[in-house]
Amino acid sequence: MRKLTFREVEIGYPRCKLLYEIDGTLLTKHVNVKSLPAAEFCAADSVTLRHLLAHVGMAYVPHLFVLDDFDTVNVYPLYLSPAGIDFYETYIQHGLAELRMRNGLPVDKPVRIKLPEDAPQYRPQFYGPNRTALLMNGGGKDTVVAAELLREIALPFEWLTLGITPAMKRLVQVSGNPRLITLRLGGSLRAISARTRYRGHKPFSSVLAALGLLAAFVRRHRYIVVANEYSANFGNVWMDGLEVNHQYPKSHEFELRFAAYVKSEILPEASYFSVLRPLYDIQIAKLFASYPQYFESFRSCNIGHQADYWCLKCPKCAFVALALAPHIDKARLQSIFGQDPLALPRMRRLIARLCGPNKPFECVGTQGESMMALWMARGRHPHDRFIESLCESRCSGTNMAAQEREYMHSFDRPHSIPAELADAVMARFEDRLQPNFAPRNPLSYEVEMWEKRKRGGSPDMPGFRDEDFVGGNGTNWLQKKIAKRPAPRLENIWVMIVNPYEDPERFARSHMGKVLLWGLKRKRIEWVLHNPARLKFDPDRFDAVLCWPYGFRQNPDFLPNCAVFERRARDCGLPVINGLAGCDLRHTWCLRLWKARGVECPTFQTISGWRGIRLNYPIILRTDHLHLGLNMHLARAPEEARRVLRRDISPPLDLAIEFIDTRGTERLYRKWRSHVIGDKVIPRQVQLSSRWKVNLQEAQRCEQSVEENREFLAQGEPHPKLVAFAAKTLNADIIALDYAKKSDGTYVFWEGNRNFDLSIDGQMWSQFRSTTGLSNEACVDTVRAIGDGIADLIVERAQRLDG
Fold this sequence. Notes:
By secondary structure, this protein is an alpha/beta fold. It contains 28 helices and 24 strands.
């Protein structure tokens, strides 16, 4: 009887120990928790910490089966109920199936777990978690899509990694969310390596899941979120009556069993789930293609992830390349992988295998997904002979068009997303996976429309006209469209300005239009106005797209149309500047994102009456979508809030915000405003007031105001990185930020305005001049600096694309 003994757990900071015993030899694994705040770790309940660390130790048990195919695991530091024993026996059997198969061992052999009679009892703990999440970071495309999805549904999260790779670091940096926990496992590596008898795959995601429970408990997160796809449910082969699934710890079966066990016996308030469970892997690839900012940062190759390269020799590299091929062009594929992955003989053989009946033992999609990706890639790359030939041999006789709905547009599949989040997640899937909203290559789409026309069909593209097809000569028209897009003409850049205005002259007369056109003219940038409701455009004409929201209130469809248009533009390889997808111009949008990313800002809540207010008084009552200090009221007590909210105020007050007293010297309130253009912070003004509401109308016009403004404008913002980070967390390329400073010098951010005003006449202009003490010409120069900054950003993004 071969036995493995899980002997003990030792709690310490920054290292905890897991002690195992095999044939009298003691092996020690270290769990490095240095990334968890020492104060929070040491303050956490020690009984619960011990219990959670013991579950980490149990999750690691299959890794020790490389030493021997044990019959029994004796567990001393952990009490397991019959349900707990069943969970771990099933986990170990399925988690070891591939290792046993590769080493000629019986795949279906059970492993028995035994406990001492005096095993420590444990009562499930209630730890009062926040409505926040811990997101596992694997450095790949799935992580990117999950992170952006949590951002879109406004669920604050921290990253969690087990060890860290360069790609993981880059994803954290690009995301704009720097909150990262990195745990590490070490110890006894030499001893294990020296005694290893069996080599092969061991379950990894399950260890990360157990570590996620530990980190979530210490950091008080409610949700432990992973990015496992529906494809992980499909195994590789059946042997000895057991399905061998390389991705078993990523499967929905494991997720259900683990989550149920956690709820019933470990942390009842915690929720472990995959936010991408309803999606096939190729659907995730489609969503990932709409986030080009991550293209150069992610790595999904298991061979090269530590050394930070794509090996281009494994099934994982082949599947990622195939899954992305329908959605991005060859140039982008080459920039991601370092060379054209579809042109390499080794990769071609692997892609052919992926489209065959035997699923490789890697984290890849199913045969059906690979065939679907191949079929779609043929439309995207019509002159690639390899794709054309393989598609003919693999997909002929199969109605791929009929299967497209299941593989690409459907997402009604089993999942464990909590009910309070599911509706928001599904709404995002519905928006992004519908055929009409899918980011598609205009070339392949227009080819499809042309073929429909030849067959007598009726194209459904908005704005379709017969004259779009020159004389019905499809060959000449198609050859013209297929011509390679030229590199950006940096000596004469063309930018498409996406704006609700239809009339260029009216746009040029608007005050913000003037500001923008000043900068474009000085940088010799040519421009064309475009309404996003018209999806058709010629990408060859332009080097960049600039989204300009001014005038959107007169066109309620502008923002959703703009989001769709942005995806089409990015799919064509055009850089989109100041993108508005997911943008919400209300105060709560800014405050929620800032809270999620650790930017100092007031606490808030939406309200419908005074009785539901949970904030500590005093508070500010205001209308969520109004700026310029309109509809703002200070309530120092509940009775005052009740009186204010009973007034007939239009539009109604629907937002309560914590009042933070930032009065400084001479009992004056101050509010700073800076414009952030890309990474550049341009100081605008500091306003002084003796009243709590600080805006341009209330600002004092005095020598002190003039002196402080001159200093601010001359020396600039003293902490530009902090201000730029606050803008970046809002995914804004062009924004005005209002903030104050506490008595200890820390910043408090009040609001971000993507629709800010810079009019150069009227009362606002005269007030700006009087509070800053600037001449009219100097004031005009401050406005032109904004236009110059936007023009510089356009040039930078166009040059980045060219490089």
